Amino acid sequence: MLEFESRERSCLTKLSHNIEPIIRIGKNGLTESILAAVDDLLNNKELIKIKFIDFKDDKLQIAGEIALKTDSFLVRIIGNIAIFYRMSPEPEKRSVTEVLHSRCPDMRTEFRSPRKTRMKHGVI
Q: Going from the N-terminus, what domains does the chain have, and what CATH number goes with each?
């Protein structure tokens, strides 16, 4: 999971306003196929929404697990919808990142993972 500052999080939230939830987490919970779909969508779209149909009480834990396993950033949870962002590894697919940099020109281009930070300090 990546770390962002509040202004970067705010820009990502604004960009996600017109996006519909692509994935729904229902009675089967978080499965490997959902993780694979999230990973694929983040590679292609960079910014996605996931709706929690079931497991609404565990949405924060499940969203954190999704972010950790897909190496993405949990932007925000609004109601039962979680917003995720990950910069595409392919520069030609970085449409959201380009818009994000135009709206937040001082946004960083490299982000560190808290897990790597914890490992550096000897905490896991």
A: 6-120 (3.30.110.60)
